[in-house]
Each structure stands twice: as C-alpha cells, then as structure tokens.
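Input:
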Amino acid sequence: MGSRASTLLREEEIEEIKKETGFSHSQITRLYSRFTSLDKGENGTLSREDFQRIPELAINPLGDRIINAFFPEGEDQVNFRGFMRTLAHFRPIEDNEKNKNAAPSEPLNSRTNKLLFAFRLYDLDRDDKISRDELLQVLRMMVGVNISDEQLGSIADRTIQEADTNGDNSISFNEFMKVLEKVDVEQKMSIRFLH
Amino acid sequence: MEDLWSVAVGLLQLWMFVVVFFIMLPAMFGLSLGVTGVYIQILVKILEWATIRIQRGRLEQPNVPIPIYLQTLCELRRSRAIEGGEFALSDALYFFKKGLESIADDEVTQRFSSEELASWNLLTRTNLNFQYISLRLTIIWGLGVFVRYCILFPLRLTLALIGLSWLVVGLTIIGFLRGWLSELVHLTCYRICARALSATIHYHNKENKPQRGGICVANHTTPIDIVILANDGCYAMVGQIHGGLMGIIQRAMVRSCPHVWFERSEMKDRHAVTSRLRAHVAAKTKLPILIFPEGTCINNTSVMMFKKGSFEIGGTINPVAIKYDPRFGDAFWNSSKYNMLSYLLRTMTSWAIVVNVWYLPPMTIEDGEDAASFANRVKSAIASQGGLLDLAW
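Output:
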C-alpha cells in the first residue's frame, strides 16, 4: 500500500484533482491507495466487477445503482479521476471554507449537486424525469419481496402525487428539490473523510 | 400535606447522606468500598447469561436472515416525523451514503463510528442486529433500563454537580494557596467526577507514572480521558480556551496550577505553541503536560497517526495506553453524531465505564531519529500495550 501507490500518481494530477474536487492532498493519496486496492486487474481503471467485489456494496439494495453512477454514459471502465469526481459529491460541505482555491464554478459537493447526484440515481434513463416505473424499480430494490406489486404501486403513486406540481405524472429535478427541501441533505449525503 | 413534606425532606436527607458518606468521602481519599467491584461482577454474570440465551435463541429460530436494510428501513421510519411512515424520496439517500462509504471505506473511516459488539450488552443503543429472543431477556432488559435511568442516573448526576461545583469553588479559594493542597483539591474533584461517570479505573505499572517536567502522551477516545488520567495525578492540560461552562472551569484551574491554555488564534501558530510548551517543560518543577497527539477522538479499537508537533518539544515522553471495556458502555465520543451534553447523558446511563490504564516506561528521541519516526515508535508502543490496532494512518 502506502508509498508504492503514491509514486504512481503524479503531483500535477494530484493538484488537478484537488482543484476539481476540493479534496486535500492526503485525502487524495489515501483514496488512491483505496482505488489501487480495488483494482485487481492492475490496469489503472475499475470495472463493475471490481465494485461488486466489495461485500458491503453487494448487500446494499441500491448497490447496482451506485456502481452505475461511477461509469459515464456507455462506458465500462472508470479511471481515478472519474472515481474521485463521483466521490467528491459526498464531501462534507463545511470543508469548502478551508479550501481557498475552490473552483470558481459551483463545487461538486454543493447541496444542489448532491441532490442532482441523488436524482440521477433514481433517473435511470437520464431523461431528467423520475417516471413511475423508475420509482417502482427503486422501491422494489429497497423493500425486497415482502410487499405486493399493488401495494408498491400505490406507494409510488402517492409519492408522485405529493411531489408532482406540474401534473406530468413524473418528478422533475425541481420538484425533487422541493420535496427534499426540509431534509438535511448536507448531513445525509456526506461522508467523513479524514483531513 | 405536612406529612408529605417531611417525608420528602427525610428522603432527601437520606439521599444526601448516602451520597456523601458512601461515595464522596471514600472517593476523596481514593478508597473504595468495593461496591463497584461487586456491581461489575454481577453485571458480567448477567451479560454472560444474556449472551448464552441470545445464542441459543438464534439457533432455535428458523434460519430466516433478516436483511439488514429492512431493519434500517424501520429505523428510518421511526426517526422521521412524517405520519404513516411510508416511503419517502429521502429514504434512498441513506443507502446511497452507505454505499459510497463502503466504496471509500478503508481502515480510517471505520474508526469514526462506535465499535460493534460481538454480543448485545442489554443497552438499546448498541442493539444493531439482535431481535426478540425470550421474555426473560426482555424483563432483564426492562429491569436494566429502570436501574440505569432511575437509580444510577440521578446518583451520578448529583455527584457530577457536586464535583463540578466543588472544582470551581475549591480551586478559586485554594488558588491563593499553592502546593500540595491544590493538588489534593484537584484530585478530589476528579475522583468525584470519575464516580459521577461511573468509571472504574485500573492502573497498571504505576512505577512509570509521569513525573514533573515530563510530557504525557495518550490515545484519545473521549474528553473523559482527562478525568481518567487526572484521577491518579495532576497534569498540566494543553488546549484551547472555551467559553461558557468549560471556560469557567478552565480559568479556575489556571489559578491553582499552571496549565497551558491557548487562544484559538494562537493554536494556529505552531511555533508559538511549541515554544510555550518547551518553556513549560524546561522548568522542571512544573506538572507533566498531558497531550493527545491523535488530535481527535477515535473509537478505541486502534491508534491513529500521531501529530509530530508534540514530539518536537524535546524532553522525556511518558506514553500511556487507555483501553475502555466496551461491554459496559460505549465511551467513544462521536462528535459528529452527539453533542457534549447528550454524550454525557449517554455515558451516565450506561452500565459503567470500565477502563484500563497502562503507564509505559519513558521514551526519548534517539540520535538520528526525526520527530515523525519517534512519534511512530511511541504510537506502536501504546498500541501494543493497549491491545489496539496500530494503523498506518
């Protein structure tokens, strides 16, 4: 682990990742050693199987969705930059204060971007709307086999009814944000990384 | 009406009598009536019985693995204010977060949550995967709740209030006198506070106790560490000046022994900090400094990277290993989850805090060794003594 891994990551790359994601130098090196330990094929990229090997992720009901989020449209491999970019969404928000040279545009871990990330985890076909089917899929993954289709259907209908304001029977990103207005997204979607 | 009043007064008097004579006075003189020892032994027997029952219960029940997410789903419903408790869009956030955590997870992020117990210790807060097994177990648990909240907790609260107020008042008065009297006051207050937190402390290798002019270094799990160590000797604390209640206590402490308190702005200036600490150590008559080089609270299963600043001061380092017994109560302060007050409440309503303190022989920096490797050497010594994992980070 340790020193061997960090020599494979060049300083310029670390600086670029720092600017883009806001992670600190030590966080980046540590996550790089995590990346290499997951990369069993040792080719500098991770495939879906590499993720599925993580036991806690395998039993997570939404594990597949999460793994999907790492891979850009149509691709099967993710490199370290992409890995960090996805993880950056879960950086705690207050860390932004300490990062003086944050990107001029909105940081990856802002509340809006966190919500956008969550929205995309629901919205499988990426048409910027959570349809009834997509919602049903996530529901089915979360509750398993104990609930009947009709019950699940009515839960989905109720959720859409509560959220949908423009009557198109699906949830847009703005409606999604409205529903989660009162939720402490900053806390629910942040992981504590060590400094 | 008057009868009721006199009964109440009588009870209060009895209560204070018990508190003062059976707990405070022995505590002040460092004696023990042995009640705690017996209590701990009974508790161990009950917990062992409970463990056997749980294991037997698991074997008897049909092997239906209850998926963890169903339980967490139930918890999510309980914690939400929405009526009816059905699905909400925010439920999924929990799983997203857990998933990302397991991806980023390495040895480090694990250390910031409480240790999982191999077997349930009859406290609801540690009940992760344990379901209903038998009526007897539930009764014992109910009894435990009653004992902890209605008997032990008021007792500990009274002690804590007495201890804290005595600390502030006593130190302010004694501040005008110096020497061993102020040390005695310090020790007394800390002992009362320790009893208030129901701490049972076992000290090992007392011959290695830090002497004046030395630096004491220990692993950090909770702010209670200070109380635990100060029960056996006086230390000079290093830290930031806080406002409020903590600030009052800190100012009272400064009047009697020279502690090293910093303003928040000074803490950023490492040179200022180091030179003040050096000055303190150089004056060999001052109390040993107590430093926690990890810099933050860790969950007591491992020791994390020591910040090398404390090891650049020079002088003798006296390492101390602190290990809490997780069966009786979770001492780890998860500062992102609980604030100080709720943490103290949880501590005072757990069974007990049983802690082992090992004093290690003093170490000094060797020729040609830099501060970072010296810090690592000390860290490994503490980790191996305390039975903790020595992490590379």
